[in-house]
Design brief:
The chain is built from seven helices and ten strands. It is an alpha/beta fold. The protein has one domain: Rossmann fold, CATH 3.40.50.2020. The strands form three sheets. A six-stranded mixed sheet has the order 5-4-3-6-7-10, sandwiched between helices. The protein has a two-stranded antiparallel ribbon with strand order 1-2. Helix 1 (27-38) crosses helix 6, helix 2 packs across helix 3 (97-111) and helix 6 runs antiparallel to helix 7 (228-244). It is globular and about 50 Å long.
Length: 246
């Protein structure tokens, strides 16, 4: 299932980003961006995205690769979720990055007094033991999908299908970073982002720890006329947002 054809763009009402898209003054978002930069997870340079764009920054959640970093990441997710008011009965982590995230966030939520079950999927069905593609707690009730980013909505759609097939109800998506940029299809830029697609077309709220606006705010706050690297990064990210942002 594709996002939509470029020809359908005019038929889609243009709406603002969902409430979960954060303002540049959000302290939790600023702390998260600083943490991601310090951990080397958020890097600056020239990177090719899945859409074939040359991005001046790259966010790789796979580099939250030790216990301390993963625990702190889970803390950010838990804080954002608990403050969001989003109601959910369990967590679902789509393979592969979502598996670690679901487990870590469930642990942190339990530490904070909100104990919820979690489950995840395999890429290939197992034909022995418990079998099937779902692992963990029984998928039931209101299910929150957790992942690192939403690039094209494919993982979310697949997760929705698995959750629905189990007789449960997907109730939202939690991500670390909202890139707040136009989705692309067939090399054509669309007028909405992948997060907007999930909220408008799939009817699921998206709860992000931080967004591109928060990254820009961090860079502008960190910029020092004497620090050419910071100034260059801020200018490059701003130019990217001016071209592809929503």
């Amino acid at each position: 299932m594709a996002l939509m054809s470029p020809a359908d763009a005019s038929a889609v009402p243009q709406v603002p980003l969902p409430k979960a898209a954060l303002s540049a003054g959000d302290p939790l978002a600023q702390a998260f961006v600083a943490f991601a930069v310090e951990a080397g997870v958020l890097r600056f340079g020239s990177f090719t995205t899945k859409a074939g764009r040359q991005s001046p920054y790259f966010f790789n959640a796979g580099l939250f690769d030790d216990g301390a970093k993963l625990a702190r990441l889970a803390d950010f997710y838990a804080q954002r979720l608990l403050a969001s008011g989003l109601e959910f009965d369990m967590i679902f982590g789509p393979a592969y990055k979502g598996i670690t995230l679901a487990a870590a966030v469930a642990m942190e939520l339990a530490r904070r007094g909100r104990n919820v079950p979690f489950a995840y999927n395999r890429k290939e069905a197992k034909d022995h033991g418990e079998g099937g593609t779902l692992v963990g707690a029984k998928v039931q009730g209101r299910v929150l999908i957790i992942d690192d980013v939403i690039s094209a909505g494919t993982s979310v759609r697949e997760s929705i299908a698995m959750i629905a097939a189990a007789g449960a109800t997907p109730c939202g998506v939690s991500i670390a970073l909202d890139r707040q940029e136009r989705a692309a299809e067939g090399g054509v830029d669309l007028p909405w982002s992948a997060v907007q697609y999930v909220t408008q077309e799939l009817k699921l709220p998206v709860c992000a720890i931080a967004g591109l606006a928060d990254l820009l705010a961090y860079l502008h706050a960190a910029s020092d006329p004497a620090n050419a690297a910071h100034a260059a990064n801020a200018a490059a990210v701003q130019a990217y947002r001016d071209r592809y942002g929503v």
